[in-house]
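INFO  loader      accepted 1 record
INFO  loader      residues=133
INFO  predictor   begin
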Amino acid sequence: MTAYFDDTGETTGHPGWYFRPDDDIAPLNLIEGLEFRAIVAGDAMASFVRFEPNAPAPSHHHAEQQIALCVTGELTFTVSGTSHVMKPGDCIVIPPHAEHSAVAGPEGCLAVDFFTPPRSAMLAHLPREQFLS
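INFO  predictor   done
INFO  writer      dumping tokens
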């Protein structure tokens, strides 16, 4: 066994959670042109964000660490004044309180944002079944 596979502790037998975001997670429309589908598991959150063509996510900052992954389309992310055009497979790490914004390309975009801890501004809007435990 390699160091990557740490088998210390007892197994839980928990089967995990399987879901299809578009089918199994209720959408949130908190910003015009963006649809969020978020799931919370302990101290982490994944938010599947569908941007309409050319839709902006306004400049903001927050206490949570964020990793964004571009899945489809194109997304221009600006973090602390530096812009990056993201294409499918590209990731960006956004430190806590770094000011950032994003704008989708002409075909729109699907991105996945990972937050730790979970994004506090979204928690109050999520249905209870989107909190896994």
